[in-house]
Amino acid sequence: MKGVKKVIVFEELDYVIEDELLKMRTNLPQKIEIFGKHSKDVPYAGELSCASVKNILSKLLNPEPVKTEKFPEAPFIPKRPPVLCAGCPHRASFYAVKRAMKGKNAVFCGDIGCYTLGNAMPLDMVDTCLCMGASVTVAQGLFHAESFFGDTAENSSEKLKNSSRKYFSFIGDSTFFASGITGLVNAAFNGADITVIVLDNSTTAMTGHQVHPGIGRTVMNAPAPKLSIEDISRACGAGFVEVCDPFDYDAASDAVKRAADYIGLSVLIFRSPCIALEKQKKKYTVDSDKCIGCGRCVKELGCPAIFIADKKAKIDAITCTGCALCSNVCPVNAITIANANEVKANG
């Protein structure tokens, strides 16, 4: 700072650099004025936008009053929250659990991954979400905590086993290997009556499709032992373990009912590959003559490929991956496989 008479410090958050400059100033022979947050020339809180910096500089460098310039406000843009991809197997898994537990008392504990988006409407299947692996531990914590209200722990625990409330954990295959196994061991050891739903799409989709121990190859693409989630679950003490395809509409819901009815630790693995890595199947289309415009396909699934136009359901042929979930939901069978001409016309 030799040869400098004035210093203006712009820094967001805490005044770290400004503090150091003030300390340095005491060892310099010349008098230096330092303007910043300590001098209250720069606001302590808020963003330092181009307009605010310009006004501060004008005030400090030009003694004459200057006209404060305001930039026009950004135009309104409709909110578009992230959603599960069209054809995502997690949507089918959530919907299978939702169908099976309709009208029943259940708590759904979520985890960290693409499936965190299951909290959004219309699925609304994530009641808690804390950190990786917390779906399993929070679910069993809620189960045990409830047993301590009212009667003694022993009586209440027995009462809970006969109650209708059920605690679910939703955890992805990658998160299962990273942070879910210890929670599973703890649940079995402490007698938690919970159902763990493992959403196995054979990848770590949210962060870029990294490999994990259940895939059979390393990050360098070298062969590796393919660890079995179902074998690990049994070894951890789960008394009920099943594997099911979430797109097998009725079988998936039936599997959820069996898992939920089991007293103790149950594990249901929904296995279907991530749609981002899977080749697209046949496209689906809506027969407008059959469609009654009930909107059930949109209101219940939230698939980004389906929308309402002219009071009828429509399917975007470009976005559709042919998962067929919507065709199972339609009450009048108006959604069918599209022929090549329909795909070309709608695309």
From TrEMBL:
<dbReference type="InterPro" id="IPR017900">
    <property type="entry name" value="4Fe4S_Fe_S_CS"/>
</dbReference>
<dbReference type="Pfam" id="PF02775">
    <property type="entry name" value="TPP_enzyme_C"/>
</dbReference>
<dbReference type="InterPro" id="IPR029061">
    <property type="entry name" value="THDP-binding"/>
</dbReference>
<dbReference type="InterPro" id="IPR017896">
    <property type="entry name" value="4Fe4S_Fe-S-bd"/>
</dbReference>
<dbReference type="GO" id="GO:0003824">
    <property type="term" value="F:catalytic activity"/>
</dbReference>
<dbReference type="InterPro" id="IPR011766">
    <property type="entry name" value="TPP_enzyme_TPP-bd"/>
</dbReference>
<dbReference type="GO" id="GO:0046872">
    <property type="term" value="F:metal ion binding"/>
</dbReference>
<dbReference type="InterPro" id="IPR045025">
    <property type="entry name" value="HACL1-like"/>
</dbReference>
<feature type="domain" description="4Fe-4S ferredoxin-type">
    <location>
        <begin position="282"/>
        <end position="304"/>
    </location>
</feature>
<dbReference type="Pfam" id="PF14697">
    <property type="entry name" value="Fer4_21"/>
</dbReference>
<dbReference type="GO" id="GO:0030976">
    <property type="term" value="F:thiamine pyrophosphate binding"/>
</dbReference>
<keyword id="KW-0479">Metal-binding</keyword>
<feature type="domain" description="4Fe-4S ferredoxin-type">
    <location>
        <begin position="311"/>
        <end position="340"/>
    </location>
</feature>
<protein>
    <submittedName>
        <fullName>Electron transport complex subunit RsxB</fullName>
    </submittedName>
</protein>
